[in-house]
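User: Please fill in residues for this 187-position structure.
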């Protein structure tokens, strides 16, 4: 009887050994640090800015144009005073729509024909290599159990514990980078 159970066990072992081995890996969690903005919210903020310019008494007769392009906003108005007022309106409308003001890179004010001024506001998107290196260096120095890797215009941060990732997020929020940082793909 005992021999019979041993042979059955050995058959089970041989049947199980034919299956592929299953490796249990330690769970690894990650998130991406990106610099991006919601395009539709920006379109809405620019539309609201144009509407307010048309309704405001001090800007109504300036024939101001605000045009949203693929990677910039072009502003054409009659004076630097009204240009400053338009900046304030645009920043207010963007902030109300949860857009960071760091996405706006104000270009040089140029004089245009007919005593007018023109300015191009570039829209910053993506993390530059220099800032990505600063982020990964900070992670390497302060968090030993966390890995940071540069992937194009984003930084992937991974660790075995979610608490470590939360600590990294809190630490990165404390830093003041020249771009707006978002944390996506948290898994």
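Assistant: Residues filled in for all 187 positions:
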């Amino acid at each position: 009887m005992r021999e019979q159970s041993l042979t059955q066990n050995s058959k089970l072992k041989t049947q199980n050994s034919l299956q592929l081995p299953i490796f249990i890996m330690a769970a690894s969690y990650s998130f991406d640090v990106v610099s991006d903005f919601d395009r539709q919210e920006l379109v809405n903020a620019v539309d609201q800015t144009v509407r307010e310019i048309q309704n405001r008494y001090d800007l109504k007769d300036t024939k101001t144009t605000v045009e949203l392009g693929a990677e910039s906003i072009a502003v054409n108005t009659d004076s630097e005073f009204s240009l400053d007022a338009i900046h304030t309106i645009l920043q207010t409308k963007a902030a109300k729509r949860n857009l960071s003001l760091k996405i706006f890179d104000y270009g040089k004010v140029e004089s245009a024909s007919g005593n007018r001024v023109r300015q191009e506001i570039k829209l910053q998107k993506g993390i530059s290599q220099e800032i990505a290196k600063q982020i990964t260096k900070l992670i390497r120095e302060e968090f030993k159990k966390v890995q940071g890797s540069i992937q194009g215009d984003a930084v992937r941060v991974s660790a075995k514990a979610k608490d470590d990732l939360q600590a990294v997020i809190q630490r990165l929020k404390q830093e003041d980078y020249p771009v707006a940082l978002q944390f996506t793909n948290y898994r």
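For context: The chain has five helices and nine strands.
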